[in-house]
Amino acid sequence: MKVVLVDDHDVVRQGLKALIDSQDDLEVVGEAGDVDNAIRQVGYHTPDVVVMDVRLPDGTGVEACREIRSRWENVNVLMLTSYADEEALVSSIMAGASGYVLKRINSEDLVDAIRRVGRGESLLDPNLTERLFARIRGDESDDPLLSRLSPQERRILDLISEGKTNKQIAEDMFLAEKTVKNYVSNLLSKLEMSRRSEAAAYAARLQADRARKYPPEDWGVVPGVNP
């Protein structure tokens, strides 16, 4: 099974290459550190699996995945990231990724994930998807104001509570900054608030409630790669 590695950190790629090449049935045939080179490597080698980092210096792994899947539908993409981000998960699925795992995953599970994706199976981090479904259902809070927000607005509210600017939120969510600004205006209106600081304080309370309901210690069971 041929594999192309895409990660902007050379040390990470070398570690992954050593792990994958130690398997009798897997071989790394190409490497890339950015979107453009990733697409070139896939076009040249036509691998079975691309192991793709979500964040790259000249774009995102989501963009690269979308382009690869549109050109080579038989190439399967496994997103590998340090970020437990529901929005990136949804974007990756929409872009055609077959799997999404966290870098805290252990070596054995990562190799198994590559094999499964190479066979055409779908593979998503179970804890991350459960939290995503909980967010969509609105299970994380009974607050009546929160129920007014769309899942996208709820995600932006969380990022506001982290002190992120519209530009930073746009980068995290793969959106235009102007789009984020509109979302922020809408969610403030729905929450009957006039200031961003009010929304941040409100979100901090919600996150405390969510942390009690969904403790963080069970993140990163499978698949989830040791850095």
In short:
The protein has 227 residues and is α/β, with parallel strands linked by helices. The chain has helices spanning 10-21, 35-45, 61-71, 86-95, 107-118, 126-137, 151-161, 166-173, 177-190, 196-213; strands at 2-6, 27-32, 49-53, 55-56, 59-60, 76-81, 99-102, 123-124.
Please characterize this protein's 3D structure.
The chain has 227 residues and is an alpha/beta fold. The protein has 10 helices and 8 strands. The chain has helices spanning 10-21, 35-45, 61-71, 86-95, 107-118, 126-137, 151-161, 166-173, 177-190, 196-213; strands spanning 2-6, 27-32, 49-53, 55-56, 59-60, 76-81, 99-102, 123-124. The strands form 2 sheets. The chain has a 6-stranded parallel β-sheet with strand order 2-1-3-6-7-8, with helices on both faces. Helix 2 (35-45) runs parallel beside helix 3 and helix 7 (151-161) packs across helix 9 (177-190). The longest helix is centred in the last third of the chain and has 18 residues, at 196-213. The chain is elongated, with a radius of gyration of 19 Å.
Subunit arrangement of the protein:
single chain
Count of alpha and pi helical runs: 10
Number of strands: 8
Report the order of strands and helices.
Answer: EHEHEEEHEHEHEHHHHH
- Uncertain spans, ≥5 residues at pLDDT below 50? 136-140, 216-227
Shape: elongated
- Mean residue pLDDT: 82
Helix content: 40-55%
Strand order of the largest sheet: 2-1-3-6-7-8
Distance between the termini: 24 Å
